[in-house]
Amino acid sequence: MLRNLYNRVLALAGHPRATAWLGGVSFAESSFFPIPPDAMLVPMCLARPERAMRYALICTIASVLGGVVGYAIGFWLFDALAMPVLRAYGYGDALARFTAWYDQWGVWVILIKGLTPIPYKIVTIASGAAHFDFLTFLAASIVTRGARFFLLALLLRRFGEPIRHFIETRLTLVTSVAAAGIVGGFLLLKLI
Question: Domain tally for the chain?
Answer without folding.
Answer: 1
